[in-house]
Structure to design on (539 residues):
């Protein structure tokens, strides 16, 4: 009985000592004769308990780190942080996950707000660094973000100086909790310009963007560049540096236009609500099909060279302007073929000369663009032994009611657009529609977040419609002006009526014909051509 009571007492004493804390237990061990061996035993036992506690805490913390990326709160934090940094009005992130130290996002979309530098932004299949402790115990060092597709509609300016400052701040912003060193995009599309006269863009290019000081340096390889009358110049090497103080500077701009070359020289844009452009562009044997309306290719061909000054703004009624002189110095030729109605008529009534193709190889003209108009003034061209041409002409985009008549509705597109020589389906609508359909097919079989898929769909459709309308307007043109052509004096030798209507100039020995240029391509010189054919049949 006494042994049992002694055992119970010792057990209660041990429990009481264990509840007194580490330092009491250590003193008790030393004073009770256990010496250092007893103290060491207690130290080991307490160390084991502490270790076990740390393991439990570590496992719990590790579980939290692994599972936090799957939580709605984490995703909401990413959306909110991204939106605040870039000044977006609305932001969505779809398909976020972390695998082996890499964060992956299927899709990011944002609609620009008053303080943003863009109208819309969408990126697909993003990959960047994400350590276990990033964003928890230290800043998130994402390194370089790699994405498969990037599509951005940039703001061409701002409504006020304050709004321009907000846009600049969001563009150059640095998030103290998220370190971004650069961006790489395999397929990039960037567009800008509120009006067709200022509209431009980069399409299908590989882009690299790196932080350099307080600014960004962008590099583009491949793809195409368009601005106003320059259409789809192939990018060989384009390097642009953007900084808060210096604005945008094109450090290198080399393009191919057909078999010709294009080079940007000292091109820059000073930021603000109306960015001002300056610099020049050097053309070397650039095919006319690369700068003239596409439907003119069946009538006019050849190459031009010259240096053109850049001016204007991407956010003004004038738009981006070019001005320079074109000289045919033996390397370049401008050819006009039979699709030109007047030349077709001359080819019928003139039995001594042919006008199936007229090659102008001497002379030149001043070229200027602005307010949606391509102006050729001081026109003085010569096709050796056959024809000379002097005068001026403008090729302009339609305005007001003309737009509705030419590109406004389905009937107008079917009629007037075909009259302009534009293949509406292949050149305008189908390209953009096919791109949208391709995006939808690419998502088939993927895990799509239903709650934000509507946002991406609506944003993409709005972007497609804006670009489609811009492309429609950019491809519709009207002609104005007039020229005087001089043809051989024997051109109307077999028609007395034509000789009386268009007499030979005794000073030059040639026949002068004043040619008004008005309307669409199909309407150009139609009346004059019909008159010549009618008079040519009269004896």
């Amino acid at each position: 009985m006494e042994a049992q009571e002694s055992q119970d007492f010792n057990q209660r004493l041990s429990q009481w000592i264990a509840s007194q804390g580490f330092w009491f237990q250590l003193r008790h061990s030393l004073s009770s004769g256990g010496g250092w061996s007893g103290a060491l035993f207690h130290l080991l036992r307490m160390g084991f308990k502490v270790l076990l506690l740390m393991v439990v805490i570590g496992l719990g913390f590790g579980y939290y780190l692994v599972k936090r990326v799957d939580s709605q709160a984490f995703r909401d934090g990413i959306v909110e942080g991204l939106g605040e940094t870039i000044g977006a009005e609305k932001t969505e992130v779809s398909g976020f996950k972390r695998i082996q130290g890499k964060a992956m996002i299927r899709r990011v979309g944002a609609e620009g707000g008053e303080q943003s530098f863009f109208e819309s932004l969408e990126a697909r299949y993003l990959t960047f660094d994400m350590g276990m402790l990033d964003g928890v115990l230290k800043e998130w060092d994402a390194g370089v973000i790699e994405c498969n597709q990037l599509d951005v509609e940039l703001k061409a300016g701002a409504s006020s100086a304050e709004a321009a400052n907000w846009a600049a701040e969001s563009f150059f912003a640095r998030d103290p909790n998220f370190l971004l060193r650069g961006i790489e995009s395999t397929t990039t599309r960037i567009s800008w310009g509120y009006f067709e006269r200022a509209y431009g863009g980069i399409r299908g290019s590989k882009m690299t963007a790196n932080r350099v000081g307080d600014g960004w340096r962008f590099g583009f390889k491949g793809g195409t560049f368009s601005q106003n009358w320059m259409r789809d110049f192939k990018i060989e090497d384009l390097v642009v540096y953007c900084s808060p103080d210096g604005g945008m500077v094109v450090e290198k701009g080399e393009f191919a236009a057909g078999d010709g070359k294009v080079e940007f020289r000292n091109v820059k844009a000073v930021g603000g609500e109306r960015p001002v452009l300056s610099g020049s562009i050097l053309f070397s044997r650039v095919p006319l099909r690369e700068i003239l309306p596409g439907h003119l290719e069946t009538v006019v061909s050849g190459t031009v060279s010259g240096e053109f000054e850049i001016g204007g703004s991407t956010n003004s009624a004038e738009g981006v302007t070019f001005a320079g002189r074109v000289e045919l110095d033996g390397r370049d030729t401008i050819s006009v073929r039979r699709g030109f109605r007047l030349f077709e008529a001359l080819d019928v009534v003139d039995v001594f000369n042919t006008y199936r193709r007229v090659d102008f190889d001497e002379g030149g003209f001043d070229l200027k663009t602005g307010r949606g108009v391509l102006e050729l003034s001081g026109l003085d061209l010569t096709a050796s032994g056959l024809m000379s041409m002097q005068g001026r002409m403008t090729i302009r985009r339609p305005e007001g009611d003309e737009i509705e008549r030419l590109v406004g509705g389905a009937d107008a597109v079917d009629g007037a657009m075909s009259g302009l020589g534009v293949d509406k389906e292949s050149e305008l609508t189908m390209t953009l529609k096919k791109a949208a359909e391709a995006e939808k097919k690419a998502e088939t079989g993927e895990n799509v977040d239903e709650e934000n898929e509507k946002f991406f769909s609506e944003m993409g459709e709005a972007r497609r419609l804006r670009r489609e309308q811009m492309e429609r307007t950019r491809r519709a043109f009207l002609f104005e002006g007039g020229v005087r052509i001089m043809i051989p004096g024997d051109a109307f030798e077999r028609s007395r009526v034509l000789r009386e209507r268009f007499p030979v100039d005794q000073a030059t020995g040639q026949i002068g014909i004043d040619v008004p240029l008005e309307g669409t391509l199909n309407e150009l010189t139609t009346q004059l051509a019909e008159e010549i054919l009618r008079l040519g049949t009269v004896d």
